[in-house]
Structures are given as structure tokens and as C-alpha cells.
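Re: the 253-residue chain
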Amino acid sequence: MEMIEHAIRENSLVGAFAFVGLIMWISVHLSRKLTFGRVHGSAIAIVIGLALAYWGGIQTGGSKGLADLKLFAGIGLMGGAMMRDFAIVATAFEVQVDEAKKAGLVGVMALLLGTIIPFIVGASVAWSMGYTDAVAMTTIGAGAVTYIVGPVTGAAIGASSDLMALAIATGLIKAIMVMVFTPVAARFMGLDNPRSAMVFGGLAGTVSGVSAGLAATDRRLVPYGALVATFHTGLGCLLGPSVLFLATKAIVG
């Protein structure tokens, strides 16, 4: 047993892949036996991952969930920004240009609506919770776009670290909701072709949520949803500190 633990610690990233593979195997098995395939194994794996992250945080008092345990340190690298960005770039190579062109104006409109509507909802919730100044409302509203747009916008307009933390938390909650509920609502939304996946990616916005949600629905749709969702962060970072902030300031003063 000590030999296995030593091997995992010395090869933490390999151990992380093996551990995630085990979770996926268990999740697929649970999907088949408990839900008869109605809930995809990836969705179950996401819930298990969140539960393990919560348990890891309680056990260590840290901030990285299960990755704070030395045995699972590789998960921090595997789930970090570098691997995420590699995965996003890799998905782009699977896109068929002819299919991507089919999104057309609808995809562009979805991208704009997916930026503006979450911002309005986030800013409105912030106002209802007592954050009534333009900087706070814009920062939290931007967090509802994605958890990256929130802190970028906040830093640009002079928000405090507390507000940026709230923005990140808002974006994470949104990403988790998209991850978990996409497979459940896929049939209702008509997520069965590349064009609908691109529209969904534009409306949902969060790359991690869209990628995981579509993977749990039909992995062939992941490149198309992720392609549009990738632009979402850039668009949000452009509009957040400028147009959206100025509009919010004009309304609330």
C-alpha cells in the first residue's frame, strides 16, 4: 500500500488521470444500473467530483478541495487553467467549418444575449442583496457571465477583492448548474445537432459548463458548443468594464 501511495505522489498527474478514470467508471455503472441511462455518467461524475471536493476542503481546511490532500495533488494540475486551456484549443481542431458557418447570425445573437442577459440578472440580484453602487453591481453581474469575466471586470473598474470573490462564486454556481442540468434539459432544448450546440454555447457562455454538459449529452457536440462559448469570455471582458459598466452607472448613478 505504501508503495502505491509513493508511486501516486511521485507521479501525481498520472495518478489524477487514473483516479478520474475510476470515478468515470463508477459513474457510468451507476448511470446504467440506477437511471437506466437516463442520466449520463458524466453528470453523475460531476456531482461525485463536487462532493469529493467539498469533503477534501473540510478535511484539510484548504481552498483547493481534494487537491489539498497530498495523495491527490495532481488533480489540482489536471483541473487547472493550463489543462483547461489545452482542452479548449484541442476541441477547436474537431470543428467542421461548414457546420460552424451554419450558426450564422443566430450564433452571434446568442453570444450577445448570453452576455447581456446573465449580466442583467446578476446585477439585479446584487442590487436586491444591497449592493447598489455601479462598481459592485457591474462586478457581480459580470461574474454571472463567467467566473473569469467577473474578476477581470472588477479589476478594471476598481472593485474590492471581496466583490471579485463574489463574482467568481457567482460564475462557478452558474457553471455547475449548466454542467448538471444540460443533460436533463437537452431533449427539451433540441441539443442534437451542431447548430443548436453553438447557439447553446453562446447563450450559456461558460466554457467549462458547456463542455461538461454537452459531453454528458453527446460528446460530438462539445467542439461546437465550446467554440462559441470560448468567444464568450473575450466578449464579456470587453463589454464588462466599458459598455456594461457605463450603462449600469447611468442607471444607478
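Residues 2-79 form one domain.
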